[in-house]
TrEMBL record:
The protein's name in its UniProt record: Putative MATE family efflux protein
Principal subcellular localization: membrane
Bilayer disposition of the protein: Multi-pass membrane protein
Biological classification of the source: Bacteria, Pseudomonadati, Pseudomonadota, Betaproteobacteria, Neisseriales
Family matches, as InterPro entries: MATE_fam, MdtK-like, Membrane_Transporter-Flippase
Tagged with keyword Cell inner membrane: no
Keywords associated with the record: Cell membrane, Membrane, Transmembrane, Transmembrane helix, Transport
Natural source organism: Silvimonas terrae
GO molecular-function terms, A-Z: antiporter activity; xenobiotic transmembrane transporter activity
Length: 468
């Protein structure tokens, strides 16, 4: 076994989950810092129109990455279950099918995106002054899509085998490269041309493709056991059962991201109705919430990988322990961040707002109402991570729709006649309580233990029962 890989089916559950999740958390932090620094260069030196352009383009990118998140997560679970069962032939079939599928889909998306970029931006109502910037930026991003998709699926494959450290180091390489190249390509330096906003997107293209190539070279040098050699190219022929699992299990997981994103868009429209001061306060607070949720998201990724391997190995008692430890870690890690934020709220918010700003008081008020609800939502994330690792992916999507679209948004809108803007802030705890309650009920009474990612190929394995 590689030094970077951990056997997720043996050893102390707590130590294994913590050591596996820590690099995932680091990767999430790097991505957020990278995006923030790139936005700083564009906003400060290219102007508001350019920043608006990147915001519009990033909505499209978030949609594309949201879908691929679900598909690549399905790949992680399939690989994890195969590795847990010590079925390396099945693991290679998953890798080969995933590689072919992602290459075909990403190339088609890139071609269509480059051609349709102006029409996509027009449909979004991109402001006229930002449109030229957005076209230049988004077209380069579409060219980068195949590299982004393959990079993502390779990282998720590694995590499925128990290796979260290698993806972290290459994410670090990608982030540092992107940050260094952004000002060089935006403004031009030495042999590099001045590219303006297209330079920011080109930096991302170079960083992603370069990190992907470096990762593949590294894995080849290390003789990574799932890297297909010249005599194993037959695995690239898509396996129909695996392909169905990638699509029909992956899409519901991707849609979970889109449910969260779309509800956030509606929520900001409700906030906008209360004026720019409230919107500014909400915007600053929501930036901090992104960091608060990172431990739970990292734990969710770790729980999914661990549960997938243990399900493959048939270690169901260990699955329950992984879930309990994941919930405990969420309370400790997310709870510590929330406590720190509330104790130092004036200092932390002061990084974004002047001390005497009216928005400061509003932001502190919002944080005291909303931030603790992410502890509850973190438990939901861990429970979702467990059940989806068996193949039960529809129930978490339905629960999110109920919590976000049928609870949080109606509460924020309808109760505003009685509570004013307070209804918006209290809708977060209300939605979190609903999602946690439904997730606990499904975890306790649902049929997720009978779910399967893919129909077994051998009759001895029995018939699969797909849980909803």
């Amino acid at each position: 076994m590689s030094k970077s890989r951990m056997n997720l089916t043996t050893g102390p559950v707590g130590r294994t989950l913590f050591l596996f999740s820590l690099p995932v958390l680091g990767s999430n932090v790097l991505q957020s810092l990278n995006a923030s620094i790139n936005s700083m260069w564009v906003g400060h030196y290219l102007g508001e129109a350019a920043l608006t352009a990147t915001s519009n383009a990033n909505i499209v990118l978030f949609f594309l990455l949201g879908v691929v998140f679900g598909l690549s997560m399905a790949n992680t679970i399939l690989v994890g279950q195969a590795v847990g069962a010590r079925n390396m032939d099945q693991a290679r079939r998953v890798v080969g099918t995933s590689a072919t599928f992602f290459v075909v889909v990403s190339v088609l998306l890139a071609l269509a995106g480059v051609i349709l970029t102006p029409h996509i931006l027009d449909a979004m109502g991109t402001p006229a002054d930002a449109r030229p910037y957005a076209v230049a930026y988004l077209r380069v991003i579409f060219i980068a899509v195949p590299f982004m998709y393959l990079y993502n699926v390779m990282m998720m494959t590694l995590r499925g085998t128990g290796d979260s450290r290698t993806p972290f180091w290459f994410m670090l390489l990608s982030a540092v490269t992107d940050i260094i190249l952004n000002p060089i390509l935006i403004f031009g330096w030495g042999p590099f041309p001045k590219m303006g906003i297209a330079g920011s997107a080109t930096a991302t293209l170079i960083a992603q493709s370069g990190s992907l190539i470096a990762m593949m070279w590294f894995l080849k040098r290390r003789k990574y056991f799932l890297l297909l050699g010249r005599h194993e190219l037959h695995y690239l022929k898509p396996d129909p059962a695996i392909l169905r699992a990638l699509i029909f299990k992956g899409l519901p997981m991707g849609l979970q991201m889109l449910v969260i994103a779309s509800s956030a868009i509606v929520m900001i429209s409700l906030v906008n109705a209360h004026g720019s001061t409230v919107t500014a306060a909400y915007g600053v607070a929501s930036q901090l919430w992104n960091y608060i949720q990172m431990p739970a998201l990292a734990l969710g990724a770790g729980v999914s990988s661990m549960v997938a391997q243990n399900v493959g190995a048939g270690l169901w008692d260990r699955v329950s322990r992984i879930t309990r430890v994941g919930v405990l870690f969420n309370f400790l890690m997310t709870g510590a961040l929330v406590t720190l934020l509330l104790l130092l709220d004036h200092l932390v918010l002061g990084l974004f707002l002047p001390d005497d700003a009216t928005a400061m008081g509003v932001a502190r008020h919002i944080d005291w109402i909303v931030s603790w609800s992410f502890i509850l939502f973190g438990v939901t994330i861990v429970l979702f991570a467990t059940v989806r690792a068996t193949g039960a992916v529809v129930a978490p999507l339905v629960i999110l729709i109920i919590a976000m679209w049928l609870t949080r948004l109606p509460f924020a809108s309808l109760m505003s006649t009685h509570m004013g803007q307070e209804a918006i802030w209290w809708s977060f705890p209300v939605g979190s309580v609903v999602s946690l309650t439904l997730a606990l009920l499904y975890y306790r009474f649902g049929g997720w233990r009978r779910a399967r990612m893919v129909v077994p190929s051998t009759p001895a394995a029995g018939e699969a029962v797909v849980a909803k």
